[in-house]
Amino acid sequence: MPTRQNLELDTIRPLRLFVIILVLLFTIEVLVMLVLPHLLPHDGTKIVEALIDACLLTGVLAPLLWYLIVKPLQKLAATRQRLLALTLSAHESERGRNARDLHDSVGQSLTGLMIGLKTMESLTQIAALQQQARELRQIGSDMHDEIRRLARGLRPAVLDDLGLVPALERLVEDLAASHQIEATFERDCEQGARLPDDLQTAVYRIVQEAATNAVRHGKAKHVQIKLTCSPRKLTIAVSDDGVGFEVAAALRLDQVNSPFGLLSIHERAGLLGGEAQITSQPGRGTQIRVTFPLQELVASDG
User: Which of 41, 84, 88, 155 could anchor a disulfide with 96, C-beta 3.0 to 4.6 Å?
Assistant: First the structure.
């Protein structure tokens, strides 16, 4: 999960820092050129000459600053991006294993238990035992449904087997049923279109995070999810009618690992070259919109 250190590192933009340093350096050089003649015996330096000297000196120092400051920062940022991608990938793999273990091990055991109770119910003539067997089968059935719900929450098999659209449809159904809210899903993407696995996982987790926040923290009664695709980009939008919040304050809380997960949305989008926009105000719901460069991601996926 993102941490304060991650955010601070992410806010370091090498090119922006490079431009700021050059501007500061140029300004200092101009001031020095203008002040120096007044301190030393000299005929005086005109402002035009100071600007020319400062430009020349800045031009000479720029390549040195680039290799001493910008290049190391670029390498550091790239390394951090790779590590974050590996961490998220490992996290997804672990969630997938746990989901399969729940479904295949615990789920199958519960199924066997319910079959045994059904057999016992049919063999006995004692009404009290039949009633107890039915009650135990109902408990087992409820547990089985809960196990399946937990497994889908960890890593839905439908995402790997059928793709993003069916997985989001299932997510919305579970969200509405679990929290008794109105949840809708619209799309204009072709259902059979196969998207890169990383993109599918990122979009699914972003929707999952945003929808969970809407219900858990926003107390929303209506959640709308819209997926749109064009040849160049994919956009996912999640909006709700919840209590809303101050975005800047929530992002600051996220830096100390608060449960909002807003940084996680930014991180997942940024790793794939996407951009996340979060809009919210107290009492006016929340709108989260994330855009990914679909054409580039499909091309890089081969």
Answer: 155
